[in-house]
Design brief:
transmembrane; mainly alpha; membrane; transmembrane helix; 352 residues; elongated
């Protein structure tokens, strides 16, 4: 085999197996016949054309649901869960509005000036945009939802990068808000709309029982992370005379942070149990680790602030934690789906 042919075959390996079986040899013959005498490497134009063709074919197959890969359906499930969590953040913002209005009113002109309005309510248009996108996706208007998601995600990435890189600049605090947990959620939801049958298909794959469970857990998390719930929890606990008032309030805040962390951990355990049932759902769990791992780290940082480096809760560190979570989750999936794992599961079922 010539060096040029070998290198062309490696490039053709980027195409799906079914496409290679049908067209691979024909494509290779055309490429070799067009090669210059003495050529030993594919030209830059041929390399770019082959790689772009492979990407286009794989995206088309993912969008159409063709092929035997389970990853498009897994991405559809993950995209639905990401959209659901974005709606949790939207619900939390709506629940917080009365409290934010009271805080702004107490600050007077400073609270209702341009800076104060952006500080307290600056993320409102973002949550409204994702609510519209979720409604479009649920009604089956996928093209409109995809355009909206790509636009909003692109603006969020730019704003998050600005807030992370230029922390002392004007309105950088708002950019950092967009660089939190909502960014990986937005990216997964957008990827699901672009590269999978879509979040609506993912909801159908979950089934009614798991769908109802996901919505219930999401509603609990929305309430647990809202200001009104915190105020209700505090109640009369901090109504003590100084100097004990601050100590009492600090204890209440720590207890509330522990409840929030316990809620996130319970949600993660329930999600793992619900998504571990079949091969497609297990792949969805692997993808969900991209946002689940940073979420767990952030929850741990709220309870044990000295145990989690602050850098892990910023954008670059959060991305690294997400990739580490994805790697570990995929390793667990491979172990479970290995022949040895399958035999072990059969032995457990037979003994039961």
């Amino acid at each position: 085999m010539s060096t040029l042919e070998d290198r062309y075959r490696r490039l053709l390996g980027c195409y799906p197996a079914a496409h290679r079986e049908t067209h691979g040899q024909e494509m290779l013959d055309v490429l070799l016949s067009a090669a210059r005498p003495g050529q030993t490497r594919p030209s830059l134009a041929d390399t770019a054309d082959l790689l772009s063709g492979a990407v286009r074919i794989r995206i088309r197959r993912a969008l159409s649901g063709a092929g035997t890969s389970l990853w498009p359906d897994a991405l559809a499930i993950t995209g639905f869960l990401a959209l659901l969590l974005l709606m949790v953040e939207t619900a939390r913002f709506i629940l917080n509005v009365p409290t934010l209005v009271d805080v702004a009113a107490s600050l007077g002109h400073q609270g209702f000036g341009s800076y104060g309005l952006l500080y307290h309510f600056g993320t409102g248009p973002y949550w409204l945009a994702w609510t519209v996108i979720a409604m479009l996706a649920w009604r089956g208007l996928r093209r409109q939802a995809t355009i909206g998601a790509c636009t909003v995600a692109a603006v969020q990435i730019a704003f998050a990068a600005y807030g992370t890189a230029f922390q002392d600049y004007a309105y950088a605090y708002l950019g950092r808000d967009f660089a939190g947990t909502s960014l990986p959620l937005a990216l997964l939801a957008t990827a699901s709309l672009v590269l999978s049958p879509g979040p609506r298909h993912g909801a159908r794959l979950l089934g009614r029982a798991r769908l109802a469970g996901a919505v219930t857990v999401a509603a609990i998390l929305a309430v647990l992370y809202s200001y009104p719930a915190f105020v209700l929890f505090v109640g009369h606990r901090a109504d003590t005379e100084p100097p004990h008032a601050m100590n009492a309030l600090g204890a209440v805040v720590r207890t509330w942070s522990e409840l929030q962390a316990a809620g996130v951990l319970a949600a993660a355990v329930l999600a793992a149990a619900a998504l571990a049932r079949d091969r497609t759902s297990r792949r969805a769990l692997v993808l969900f680790a991209l946002i689940g791992a940073p979420g767990l780290v952030n929850a741990a940082g709220g309870v044990l602030p000295n145990s989690v480096p602050a850098a892990l809760m910023l954008l670059p560190g959060s991305l690294m934690v997400g990739m580490a979570g994805l790697f570990l989750a995929d390793l667990c999936r491979r172990l479970v789906e290995s022949p040895a794992g399958a035999r072990a599961r059969r032995r457990v079922r037979s003994s039961v």
